[in-house]
Specification:
This protein has helices spanning about 1-10, 40-50, 70-80, 95-100, 105-110, 135-140, 155-165, 175-185, 195-205, 215-220, 225-235, 240-245, 250-255, 260-270; strands at about 20, 25-30, 35, 60-65, 125-130, 145-150, 210-215. By secondary structure, it is an alpha/beta fold. A hairpin with a 2-residue loop joins strand 2 and strand 3.
Length: about 270
Amino acid sequence: MAEDLNQQINEIYPTLPKILEGTTFELSLYQGFWCPTGMSPIRGVISFQKCFQAQDTDILVASNPKTGTTWLKALSFSIVNRTRYTPSNTPLLTSNPHDLVPFLDFHLFTQNQLPDLSGIPSPRLFAMHTPYSALPDSVKDSNCRIIYVCRNPFDTVVSLCHFSNAFTHKQDAQLSMEEFFELFFKGISPFGPYWDHVLGYWKASLERPDKVLFIKYEDMKEDIVPCLKRIAEFIGYPFSEEEERNGAIKEIAKLCSLGTLKDLEKWCNQRT
């Protein structure tokens, strides 16, 4: 099966339209959305589409890049594992949220076309950037839960520009903020067009509110507590009245605050 899949990918990749080759924003058009160029990202997306078998108990974090993914991963992990770990011994103190809630399309199926996911205990926590329209049938047909976070497009493109250009010091490989804005609002961005990505999950949340939860980054920043309660209820791990009285929600909010995550990320990077 791996050989057949590899052959399919090798045949598909050269035929894909590409743009901005040689820059930090190099992209390939696949099934109507722009995927970061290179065999590995394309291989990961295609392998994820064709091989991933969703389970009804899976919890999937979905997003556009740079829209609050890391924050939502940390919150989801903490909600699900709050009876297993305390704020003083949670793996979030020593591990990046991307390791605790790995990307299916951009990590697991990129590193290994047929990763063995059978040993992961339920509920399995994964993440993905793939648009809703391009998700595997096993995800759409199962009862797994999808939490989707969107963010103001202006802030998204600014964050995306800084993030992309941080990976190279070659000036000729970088794009200016003005170039990023022009491309972004033409629909050219990783896993975009941005608008199609957001609308796909938003419509799914209206059609299947039991399956897709649509939340806004700005709402999370304004008041994280009601957002935490919504997420916990949606994925089947609601907070009890006793937990609320004992401050469990505020503990998770503090542990997973943007400031705390940034400090932990710096600390983890210094250790590696």
